Amino acid sequence: MKFLRTTLGPKSKSELGMILPHEHVFVDLRTPDQPGYADAETEDVVRLMAPEIERIKKLGVTALVECSTGGVGRRADIDLAVSIATDFPIVVPTGNYREPWIPEWVRHASEQELEAWMLRELTEQIDEIGFQAGWIKLSAGDDGMTALETKILRAAARAAAQTDAVIGSHTIRGRVVMDQLDVIEAEGYRADRFISIHTQEEKDFAYNLAVAERGAWIEYDHVGRAGDDEVAELVIRALEAGCGDRLLLSHDRGWYDPALPMGGTPKPYTHLSMVLLPELRRRGVDDGTLMRLTHDNPFEAFAR
Fold this sequence. Notes:
Elements: E1 4-6, E2 9-11, E3 18-23, H1 42-58, E4 61-66, H2 76-86, E5 90-91, E6 93-94, H3 104-108, H4 111-123, E7 135-139, H5 147-161, E8 167-170, H6 174-186, E9 194-197, H7 205-213, E10 217-220, H8 228-240, E11 247-249, H9 271-282, H10 287-302
Parallel strand pairs: 3-4, 4-5, 6-7, 7-8, 8-9, 9-10, 10-11
Antiparallel strand pairs: 1-2
């Protein structure tokens, strides 16, 4: 049986309903060498973000995937505190972002050391916090992977191959995604265990299809950030092209930002439930398809 690895332990499909596959509870987009990077009081984050979690619980959302990875302020301890305060499971990644958001220790680590680090977080626990990483989050440069980003990806593929963890990458261009899939397959892992994050940013729809046809997940995670007509039309286009079983939908919203006074103003995780799904239904998308997009696909993508 497969499980979602969360802050509150493994969760089976029967324990879950709707899952948001790309959100943020806490993120710091400053580089790790900046003063105050990823520094915040846990109580302040809980105070700001717990109400956002409570709102989506009332809408039937049962889990979300935290996409803040190494290099952009991952704070698994804070994710856990928010999770406990709201009794709501959060899926936290291992891995690291792209240049220049790469800490010195990752820059100087060998592939073997990075593989061992990710493997430990996937199979034992993140730091000493007490729960396993649920997946691997990476990124690649817009115009192609650097040597350092390729090193991280190779290590990730090796760790993932031992755990069946999914690898998700913030990658803007479809041709770079295809290069990443080449690297993953060369390391003995599978394209169907890869998520092309921000697929909507590749405006050549043929690349969206090519990534899905290769077996990878495509993720339209601009719900509530782009116009509703634009998002709905893109989703329907993907469905009509036969990509419904490889499609993920989310907001890429939140979050507590320690670079802003009092963490800033969070953007709600509610738009998918309250606006986009009713709009897709109005346009003729049936309830079974909507259930697949919001319940089944996220679980299948992240469970192992």
